[in-house]
Amino acid sequence: MDDAIRIQDRWYIPVTSPRADDRTRVLKSADGFAVFSRHGDIARVGLGEQGLYYLGTRHLSEWRLLIDEREPLLLNSTVQLDNTRLAVDQTTVDLYQRGEMALPQDRLHLRRELAMHDCALTERLQIVNYHDAALRLDLQYCFEADFRDLFEVRGERRARRGALQEAQLETTAVVLGYQGLDGIRRRTRIGFDRPPDALSAQRAHFRLALEPGARWTLETMIACASGEAFFCGSDHRHSVEAVDREVAEDRASRAEVFTDNEQFNDWLNRSAADLQMLCTETRHGRYPYAGVPWFSTPFGRDGLITALQMLWSQPSLAAGVLRFLAATQAEHEDPASEAEPGKIIHEMREGEMAALGEVPFRRYYGTVDATPLFVMLAGRYRQRTGDDALIETLWPNLLRALGWIERQLEQYSLLVYARYGQRGLLQQGWKDSDDSVFDHSGRLAVPPIALCEVQGYAIEALRQAAVLAELRGEPARTRHWLELAERLVEQLETRFWVESLGTYAIALDGRGQPCAVRSSNPAHLLWNHAISGERAARVAQGLVSPAAFNGWGLRTLFAGEPRYNPMSYHNGSVWPHDTAIAAAGLAQNGFHEAALTLIEGLFNAAIHFDLHRLPELFCGFDRQPGQAPTHYPVACAPQAWASGAVFMAVQAMLGLAFEPEHARIHLRRPRLPSYLNWLKVRGLRYGNAEIDLHVHRYGEEIATSVERRVGEIELVVSV
Questions:
Q1: 650 in a structural domain
Q2: How many domains is the chain built from?
Q3: Dihedral pair phi/psi, residue 302, rounded to 5°
Q4: Is residue 484 within 8 Å of 493, Cβ to Cβ?
């Protein structure tokens, strides 16, 4: 039975269907990921994103389990807290054979466990007969591989496609294939650990005879291959063991946080597990892919901000991000990819459409902020770790990035963007919707556009570069970059400040006119220490006003502004990473109560979302008593910088900073919110030294202690 209906090549589920469920389950490993229904199936439902994907192509578009042609009834479904496997418990509805009741419901238990490692998905199915009679049942797995490019799944139309190949049948497996227009042959092998009673290109049949109390098991491995690669993978047990090892290695590489609030711990633990799952091992180190399903690939900006969020806890992630982005830094000018010497990449895509140039994102550099963020991360990384060796390796890349920044400042006095041609991104900051930058009348800004927060990134990048140059004994460069930073501060203050709004314009348009609307963008200026004094205080006040803070987080565009829409992607929605950056900036500038207000909103939102997983974004409607946040339909979940938000929030609470020259860790005016009585940080490292911290709240007072210390490291607490 199939509840899906098809309208103009799109699949929909009637509201009466029991499978019309927007809660999906996700597994990811390396360059592959899978999106399932809560049943553990892959079907044509909801937004159509379900599938097994590898290198930008959907290698499995259907995977459904049937018992006597009926879908089992869902009892329970969860992804393990560490994201190592998806566990699903099911039973059957009343089953009839030849018009008579053959099996009453709730007599058969199905336990499905799915895991993913590298480019293979494995499933272990166990069936137990709790009926008091012997059973004869027909079990089927239904499968299909449409080999659609991820951009096709998202809705892009193609004039031509490659050719599906004839299925190759083996005794215990079937191989489905596709010959792409890019000359690449992509294949999916679906193999079972016992021969099916019947096997075709779409189904595997197993005839079961189960005595009362009998158990029956079946293991499946679905492997993906692209080009000349062989199928790889192992059985279910070894796949799970391999993922378990990776989880343990990740846990050992970061400081862990515990509190007395179990719901806050759930948010922490799910976020840590999601980040571990999203990170992919590259030849340059681990890199956090941006999000599942649409952005499971390297993004420059996302990787940099995620690394900054995790820097205090897991600096090794920043090292991997810096090496990867240095290796992919643009060397030449290329209008098609918007590459310019020194620029840091925006995104990289595998897949047929990227290879053919049908989308411009194979290696795409259309971003204005990744380059200053790259320099900024390098400076903060050195401040966190004292790792001069990596900075020395990266120095030529940092000079090229700084050269790109300087050329921008020389030509425009600001960092600006304007896309080449008509194929790339129109808006090239983090709010990259076409309609995200406009003036007080709602008119879209004409390029070249200078975003306010990008100037803040550049100010800190230049200051960080000056520190690095001083450490290298290069005083001329130190002075030069500090002078450029101060000139940029002057530009920011004289050209972006809008007195009537009490904040900074979101941008200057191509005519140099301020886009005078209230937005979350100026919060980033606090994070970069680009503003101070009375103007910083007014920005801070605005960030927790009813127009900005909806009770769950910070709106990207404040209520009442032109184009405000709480259901839009960037014009009134709430992005957890954006709220966390605002909280960090508020805390760094002494606005602790405002910071805690934003953090509490995110925490309360996390409680309501499935699996305590904050999505990429959610709608900006005002918080109402007894109601959860409103979902944004196509938000990625998990998403890297949404997962990193809680770690940025913890750093903001504690005022955590590092002084590598003296092996000191600082807690600057630490605060805990009312819902946390104590917080512990275990395994906080600097070099070979390590400490465990305990922060306890007594009313309004905070007490700190060191529970364990290994090596030479000092803790300094300022109140």
A1: no
A2: 3
A3: -65, -45
A4: no
* Residue bearing tokens 């990384």: 381
CATH classification at residue 321: 1.50.10.10
**Looking at this protein, which amino acid is placed at residue 138?**
D
Look at residues 213, 228, 243 and tell me which one is the last residue of a structural domain. 243
- CB of 404 closer than 8 Å to CB of 372: no
Residue 632 in domain: no
Q: What is the domain extent for residue 383?
A: 298-602
Cα-based torsion angle of the residue sequence 596, 602, 608, 613 in order, rounded to the nearest 10 degrees: -130
Question: Are residues 392 and 529 both part of a single domain?
Answer: yes
- Tokens at 558, concatenated: 């404040």
pTM of structure: 0.95
* Residue 250, in any domain of the structure: no
pLDDT tens-digit map of 112-160: 999 999 989 999 999 999 999 999 999 999 999 999 999 999 999 999 9
Based on the number of CB atoms within 10 Å of its own CB, is 628 exposed (0-12), middle (13-18) or buried (19 or more)? middle
Tell me, yes or no, whether 224 and 304 share the same domain: no
The answer on 410 and 316 residing in a single domain is yes
Residues facing residue 219 across a β-bridge: 124
H or E segment at 102? strand 100-103
Beta-carbon contacts of 270 under 8 Å, excluding residues fewer than 6 positions away, are: 81, 611, 612, 613, 643
Distance CA 229, CA 221 (A): 17
Bridge partners, 205 (sequence order): 140, 198
Q: Please say whether the beta carbons of 607 and 233 come within 8 A.
A: no
Residues 565-610: tens digit of each pLDDT: 999 999 999 999 999 999 999 999 999 999 999 999 999 999 999 9
Which token pair is 271? 């976020």
Last residue of a domain, one of 586, 602, 618: 602
Q: pLDDT tens for residues 180-230?
A: 999 999 999 999 999 999 999 999 999 999 999 999 999 999 999 999 888
Pairing of strands 347-348, 497-498: unpaired
Between 676 and 7, the higher pLDDT residue? 676
- Residues 487-499: pLDDT tens digits? 999 999 999 999 9
Q: Which of 77, 84, 85 is nearest to 114 (CA)?
A: 85
Query: What is the percentage of the chain residues whose pLDDT exceeds 70?
Result: 97
In a domain, 160, yes or no: yes
